[in-house]
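Continuing from the previous page of notes. For each protein in this section, the sequence appears first, followed by its structure tokens. Read the first protein now.
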Amino acid sequence: MDKKTEEFYIRLKDELTNTSLWPTEYLYKFIVPSEPHKIAEIEGAFNGMGAVISTTQSKTGKYTSVSVSVHMKNPDAVIEKYKEVSNIEGIISL
């Protein structure tokens, strides 16, 4: 992981620690190319966690936004999920 990414996760952890009471419901938002296997990879990362997942395709159909609402135990767990899905080619975390 490069220094910029590492610094981002440190800031994110600080923000999550200071703005939420844990455990809490957390909303992930991603944008991926509209390829079924990429959407399935995101869904798979949250499988068995009781996540509520919704998808919306862009007007052109080229991209799909994926929202995942899930109960997370702490900021470290939130960051681990971001790292897990970051391996999906073309994913953008919002």
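Done with the first. The second protein uses the same format. Note its length before scrolling.
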Amino acid sequence: MVNSPQILSALKQKIRDRTAVIGVVGLGYVGLPFAVEKAKVGFKVLGIEQNPEKAARVNRADNYISDVKDDDLKQVVSKGYLEATSNFERVGEMDAIVICVPTPLTKNLTPNLSYIESVTQELARKLRPGQLVSLESTTYPGTTDDVMRPVLEQISGLQQGSDFFLAHSPERVDPGNQRYTTKNTNKVVGASDPHSLEVATLFYQQTIDHVVQVSSAKAAELVKVFENTFRAVNIALANELALLCDRLDLNVWEVLDAANTKPFGIMPFYPGPGVGGHCIPLDPHYLEWKAKEYNFETHFIALAGEVNRKMPEFVREKVWRALNRIGKAPSKSQVLVMGAAYKKDIADWRESPAISIMELLLQDGVNLTYHDPFVPEIQVKGHNLVSVELTEEAIAAVDLVVIATDHSKIDYLSLIDKAQAVLDTRGATRHLSCNQEKVTLL
């Protein structure tokens, strides 16, 4: 029987000399970039992806994540450093296992941990001494210790901190960010026993420039949800200011641009048509839900969510007003929505406010088209929509263009020149020298 110090020492040595086999569960926008980074420095990486088509694409080096360079993926796959499977049969080969699965919300805005629970049970059946398990999925404080640990210990018969090691290290991926990548974004790591924290820190230090330790997995979990709650609350403040400026007949962009010239005591946040993506619309509700367990009301979080969810309706109202100025009823108008993605220059349209706006306009009977250079087709309330080519004729044929996502590829000067009217919900046109009489800002 191998004793605990030997188990820990052996795993640390494997990590240092990079003979450790790394498992990554979930090869999406978090998992695949992480897997590629580990493979680039010489680790053997086995990816587990429940979607067999995605697993096959990885094995063909057929890239589907924009934050991964095609050449990097081809190189690590061709050298045998990265491969993927759609089952858990090879868990025993892995020395460190990183979990990057979705953590959505239910319709009632409560946490849905079904993916984490399912993966934990699969791992527990094959867990062996000397393995590290690290959860990167965003979740409420207590998930790693209270949900995962009991399952891993009971099914495997092993003990955390002596037989196996368990940590939480929240992902900090910002899709489309050209400056901060997996490698150079500071990495927070927390674990509830010193051995797990030690080995998890060493593991992440192999490919990430700076690792920040916190005292527990629960603290690491709270770090992540606070980061996104901070953004949600401040975006809501900017959105509420936009609603107020609309009543005051003031330009919210002018006010914010001027306020942000102050060299201290302020941080730029801007309004928009709503919040989207995998983090800001979801993560604060994890914290809000957990707080209720302690009879604590998170008023700021609840209010921020309420304000942000109102914004698509406000855009709809602005569309009505813009159409009214040119004598068009919504049900007899043609509207072109610019952008379907939740943020500029990416292809991800999960929780996108642009989709919510399209749904509302379709309910109003608007003849709707959209253009997005990154999203070729979408489904909106049973409607299969295909991105139209952005020709002069397509722009001139509609009554109103709504800029819902401010992609950098768009020639906004030309767009304004050819359009009859433009509603800009992102402030993309506010600094342009053009015919601003055509443009309505949020």
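What the second structure shows: Residues 109 and 401 are 33 Å apart (CA to CA). The chain has two domains: 4-215, 231-441. We return to this in next week's lecture.
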